[in-house]
Write a structure and sequence with these properties.
The structure holds 2 protein chains of 2 kinds. By secondary structure, chain A is an all-alpha fold. Chain A is built from 14 helices and no strands. Chain B is an all-alpha fold. Chain B is built from 4 helices and no strands. In chain B, α1 packs antiparallel against α4. Chain B is elongated and about 45 Å long. The two termini of chain B are about 25 Å apart. The chains are: A mainly alpha, B mainly alpha. The interface between A and B is medium-sized, with 19 and 23 residues.
């Protein structure tokens, strides 16, 4: 019988299924007689199977879309009248003096400027980079990223504690108008690519961006608060995160490739 | 590769769901205990079904090294997981 030390040396090859036929026979003969070696081989050989038994498959595009639909169903019903009431009450209750509002305006410009700068000048977003095989998904990733940056600039400013006044919004309004114009063709392309979740997300972002683009004055606190409450109400930032997760999956590239080749 | 830990499959009772979730976490911990190369070799072999020479090309190592890394990965995983598997079987 082949000595146990030889069998141990052959274990990596045997576990990889790469023993040559002669050694494989010696190996099998040895295992038939040696309980210790047989047990060691069987234990190690069973590890991948044990792990596989508890493995769950990565969710596919259908699962992501189903989750998106469930999320929509779980959100409270949209009530424009409620948002309007909040907007009115906040406007009435702030009653802020002009000077602190201007101070907040300066802070706001700084914060939004950083976000806009990143949106305009960043070479590639992580999402866009990962979905780099598909032009439609690249565009969707860039659209989501830029919209998020604009939205974050507005959502993360606290007029109640920082002071008052939102200053010059012209840059984010310009970018918002540009993105609003892009939304239609992008949505059509996503629909054609059978990406309903991303298409809906782009449509929702378009609605928010229209609101931003249509802010009337440089210190339209009412309008900004309406955008913020609307974004919160519709969980738009959470949806953006879901969209980014969806786009960052390697499968999003593979699925598209499979579709185009069949 | 994913081991979901938040939701159980439909049809599992609470005890099975808890066991399943516990095992999934333990597997993640066990995979975490491997070195980067061992983990790469193991996942490329058992999840991507790549041949050893292809794995070697990808990682820039010889096929012999791939075999050794895979063997060490299996030993470590077996050591990490065996107490729990024994307890549950």
């Amino acid at each position: 019988m082949t000595p146990c030390k030889h069998i141990h040396r052959w274990l990596p090859d045997a576990l990889s299924g790469e023993l040559d036929p002669v050694r494989q026979k010696e190996f099998d003969d040895h295992l038939a007689e040696c309980t210790g070696c047989r047990k060691e081989f069987e234990t190690l050989n069973a590890v991948p199977g044990k792990i596989e038994a508890y493995r769950r498959p990565d969710p596919d595009a259908v699962d992501w879309n189903r989750y998106w639909d469930k999320l929509e169903a779980r959100l409270p019903e949209r009530k424009p009248s409620l948002i309007s009431r909040v907007r009115f009450n906040l406007w009435e209750s702030w009653g802020m003096a002009q000077t602190p509002r201007l101070a907040l305006g300066a802070a706001f410009i700084l914060v939004v400027g950083i976000f806009i700068g990143r949106a305009f000048f960043s070479q590639s977003s992580p999402v866009a980079h990962q979905a780099s095989n598909d032009p439609v998904l690249i565009e969707a990733g860039q659209y989501i990223e830029r919209s998020k940056l604009i939205l974050l600039g507005i959502v993360n400013t606290d007029p109640g504690s920082d002071a008052a006044g939102f200053g010059n919004l012209s840059k984010q309004q310009t970018l918002s108008r540009k993105l609003v114009d892009q939304a239609g063709p992008l949505k059509a392309a996503l629909d054609a690519s059978r990406q309903p979740m991303l298409s809906e997300l782009v449509e929702e972002l378009q609605r928010v961006l229209i609101q931003i683009a249509n802010l009337e004055t440089i210190d339209d606190l009412k309008g900004v608060e309406l955008i913020r409450s609307g974004a919160e109400h519709n969980a738009i930032l959470f949806k953006i995160n879901i969209g980014e997760l969806y786009l960052s999956r390697p499968e999003s590239i593979k699925e598209k490739t499979d579709r185009t080749t069949t | 590769m994913q081991f979901a830990t938040e939701h159980s499959d439909a049809g599992e009772n609470p005890a099975q769901a808890a066991e399943s979730t516990l095992m999934q976490r333990e597997i993640l911990y066990a995979l975490d205990a491997l070195t980067a190369k061992e983990r790469a070799v193991f996942t490329l072999r058992h999840y991507d079904d790549l041949k050893l020479d292809v794995i070697g090309d990808r990682l820039g190592v010889t096929t012999g090294t791939v075999k050794s890394l895979l063997f060490r990965a299996l030993q470590k995983l077996q050591k990490e997981l065996s107490p729990l598997v024994r307890e549950m079987s």
